């Protein structure tokens, strides 16, 4: 591991902002630290950078405990949420600034500045002032400045949140390219699940100061360990149900029973459970499909045409509203249809998960 956080906790006064967080980054990995506003992401970044001394726990870089090491001697490159370029310096001078603290010969320093400006495709703007650059170009200068000292770890703290959507997507792809080319171990901090899933080899999902799930994006999306991860990583329909039989696991949604053959969970009869189902996994039919695929009668409440698909809201006979992604729309609202549930796409959570 290049970077390890070991049982990190941090209090601001009585507020527990980070609660026993442990995870690590392998060499060359891009890990996204993902969670809603206020879940403790920036506090973790500050602890890695050395600007916050965690109340308990350790920060370990390349096997060395750096919890008490001053920020300037840690080999961590950081791009913060807000731009931090010096307005009175040129682009080159800003990038060189990150190297001044290191004992580097001037010729080598100039070479590194040129190389990293080339990497972020800003060599032609090297004599410009930051104010002459677009928001996206300024972020790229900051990336070059963070990378030029060749840090052990690059930490990007919500670097795209101040940019508009198109620019955000362009720069996201640019960051992916730069990370691939340099192979720098990277922690990308964001509250945007799409951004995190598009970029990361692995996700660390946080909720309320704690780690709610760690894993590859697809695995966490398809098999979320908690209802929070299920809801945070994309839209999820939620249905309350009750276990009616343990072997094979059968649940009741209202008066309708569904058999979940693929579920290995040990949940005894009578246990209340929550089912999460992605809109893409549901489908609408004009009649119940004969065979084993469970379905419920429903009424179409709303049809949203969002271009490449239709998001159809239906009310099932259980009273629950569900969103169904369809490539073809139903005829009209008020129409009575059947909503079909492939049993292996249902994520089931018992009362002990949160
Ligand atoms: P955001 O995306 O909004 O920055 P975050 O996930 O980065 O949120 P933090 O900024 O680490 O979360 O904040 C975690 C919790 O600690 C929040 O409840 C916040 O109000 C609190 N907090 C953060 N900094 C301080 C501080 N300097 N003093 C007191 N409380 C703080």
From TrEMBL:
Record GO terms (molecular function): ABC-type ferric iron transporter activity; ABC-type tungstate transporter activity; ATP binding; ATP hydrolysis activity
Enzymatic class: translocase
Compartment(s) of residence: Cell membrane
Catalytic activities: tungstate(in) + ATP + H2O = tungstate(out) + ADP + phosphate + H(+)
InterPro entries, sorted: AAA+_ATPase (IPR003593), ABC_SmlMolc_Importer (IPR050093), ABC_transporter-like_ATP-bd (IPR003439), ABC_transporter-like_CS (IPR017871), ABC_transpr_FbpC (IPR015853), Mo/tungstate-bd_C_term_dom (IPR008995), P-loop_NTPase (IPR027417), Transp-assoc_OB_typ2 (IPR013611)
Keywords linked to the UniProt accession: ATP-binding, Cell membrane, Ion transport, Iron, Iron transport, Membrane, Molybdenum, Nucleotide-binding, Transport
Coiled-coil regions, chain positions: none
Described function: Part of the ABC transporter complex WtpABC involved in molybdate/tungstate import. Responsible for energy coupling to the transport system.
Listed name of the protein: Molybdate/tungstate import ATP-binding protein WtpC
Organism: Natronorubrum bangense JCM 10635
